[in-house]
Design a protein that fits this description.
It is a single chain. By secondary structure, this protein is of the alpha+beta class. It has one domain. It is built from three helices and six strands, in the order ββαββββαα. The strands form three sheets. It has a two-stranded antiparallel sheet with strand order 1-2. It is globular and about 35 Å long. The structure holds zinc ion. The site of zinc ion has 8 residues, from loops.
Length: about 70
């Protein structure tokens, strides 16, 4: 289990990675209600919601922790 760096909730990495389909342009699409992820500074961060990812992207230096 990964932990959301913003709120501390556990995130199911498999669900966050799972591709639910493809967009009209062929890009893989994931279900954001099952969690999402963001590549930042050399590693993947997992989030339980898009809201948390938005907060992280706004101030990554506040939330990013060295692994
Ligand atoms: Zn969160």
């Amino acid at each position: 289990m990964a932990t959301c760096p913003v709120c501390g909730k556990e995130v199911d990495e498999e669900a966050a990675r799972a591709t639910t389909g493809f967009t009209a342009h062929g890009a893989p699409e994931t279900d954001p209600t099952k969690g999402t992820r963001q590549f930042h500074d050399g590693r993947w961060y997992y989030f339980d919601s898009l809201e948390c990812r938005t907060k992280f992207l706004a101030r990554p230096e506040t939330y990013a922790r060295p692994s």
